[in-house]
From TrEMBL:
Gene3D superfamilies: P-loop containing nucleotide triphosphate hydrolases
Protein's UniProt name: Flagellar biosynthesis protein FlhG
InterPro entries tied to this protein: P-loop_NTPase
Amino acid sequence: MVDWHDDQAAGLRRLVKLQERRVIAVTSASPADSAAVVAAAALELTARGARVLVIDEHEGAQSIAAPLQCATRYDLLQAARRDVSISRAVVRVSNLLSLLPAARAASSLREADAGERAAVARCVEMAEQGAEFVLIRAAVDADGPSLLARAANRIVLAVQGHAAGLTDGYLLLKQVHAVIGHASYGVVLTRLRDGAARPALIANLQRVSGDRLDAMLADFGSLPVPRDGQPFAFTEAVAHGAAALADQLERVEASTPQRPPGGMRRLLARAGICGLMNSRSPLHGVAG
């Protein structure tokens, strides 16, 4: 006999899950490291049954297309300008994983007028429908993170696990924090030369970030990254690191229709075009 109460409860849980969306921006001083971290996280999350959209702000040789074993043709900016449909810009990597190239859009947004920003936001909104995770592989330039990355629920830094890497990671955090000013960030250590040194490296980075920037760094694990020029492979070691990383990403507070607007929507409001995005956008519900 069917228990309709149980069936309705299960349906409600599925509906709530679909309404939740975790938007995480990942950045690094090394594009190869951010590519490996995002690819590993996306593959692990989809293996767990989650629907994932990757928004890639890098292009050419630095694109994440090769690690995800796919090819790209169009950019989010072309969809925003209606040169192509958003469905043609989005690459379907697998049943649960999609990729939206956005390097040109991320660059253009800095100088875009209110109308073009709204068009980009609407395209992102369409692309991420049904996604439980939106992973933004963020590019950071002299002006800091892109407007898309600033709308994330959490920003995660991929930092190489050696002295020079920690210095680069701290400088990147300082640059990001100066623009965004979040109270907390995530950090993934990559290219560890000595696993035993990992706790001390994390503690050192956390201490310096707290003392100098008043910013907390949450430990999101570690991940091996291919040597420069070597292709990404989802090896057993990568899978182990990806599992720990995915555990942390699942704990990131999600955007839901009930949470107040923020992030990109707040930026759009300043431009006088609020109300153009609904509450399920990944650019909603986050502190700007």
